[in-house]
Amino acid sequence: MANDVYSPTTVSNPKSSCWLGAESKYLGKVRFVLKILEILLSLVAFILEETVTSCISCHPLYFFEFVSCTAFLFTTLLFTLLSTTLHEKVGISCWLKVDFGYTSVIAVLFLISSIVFVSSNGGTVPETLSVVFGFMAMVAFSIDVFFFVKTNGSPFKS
Questions:
Q1: Is the Cα dihedral 74, 148, 82, 137 positive or negative?
Q2: So what's the pLDDT on residue 18?
Q3: Which carries the bigger pLDDT value, residue 47 or residue 120?
Q4: Assigned domain for 116 exists
Q5: Would residue 63 count as lying in a domain?
Q6: Is residue 98 part of a domain?
Q7: Does the pLDDT of residue 20 top 70, yes or no?
Q8: What phi-psi label fits residue 24: left (phi over 0), alpha (psi between -120 and 50 degrees) or beta?
Q9: Within 13 Å of residue 118, how many CA atoms lie on the same side as its CB?
Q10: Considering its fold, how many domains does the chain have in total?
Q11: pLDDT tens per residue across span 73-116
Q12: Distance (Å, rounded) from C-alpha 25 to C-alpha 18?
């Protein structure tokens, strides 16, 4: 008798489409892992850059700091929005364009900032490790762009 009351009105809970139980229609398993990797590499690059005690020319250091901190914070925000249902509450309908554009721009900025920082640093261990993690983050962002295009195509084609 209880089944007669509840079965017509009860809706089954659909399984999540992404790894670790995060609901997402924008991130598959590969891109989910790539976003986590991007966050971690950006954070490590930022932390290592913060341990630099002196600099020959500080402007490249500050640019690298800006890029790594921005990448960490905004990728964490984008990841949180795209891996949960929060993206539905924001009011943006073009998440594919936002994700593609942001990831592409950060990959280019990491490339530029890492090249500039490696060309004008003192060669200390924290500076060298910062640059290494900057290049690794750039590679992760570039791979993410590649998988995005491979799975979704270009978001700007009509």
A1: negative
A2: 45
A3: 47
A4: yes
A5: yes
A6: yes
A7: no
A8: beta
A9: 15
A10: 1
A11: 999 999 988 888 777 777 777 888 888 999 999 999 999 999 99
A12: 8
- Return the residue matching tokens 């998988």: 147
Assign residue 28 a region (left: φ > 0; alpha: ψ between -120 and 50; beta: otherwise).
beta
- Helix and strand tally (H, E) in the chain? 6, 0
Domain assignment of residue 78, given as a range: 28-152
Contact predicate 137/68, CB 8 Å: yes
Q: Residue 151: its pLDDT value, please?
A: 85
Determine, yes or no, domain membership for 18.
Answer: no
> Tell me, what amino acid is at 146?
F
The residue to which tokens 């993410």 are assigned: 144
Task: Tell me the residue type at 87.
Answer: H
Instruction: State the distance between the two ends of the chain, measured CA to CA, in whole angstroms.
Output: 53
Averaging pLDDT over each range in 29-33, 105-109, 115-119, which range is the top one? 105-109
3-state secondary structure of 122: coil
The single-letter code of the amino acid at 112 is: I
pLDDT at 55: 79
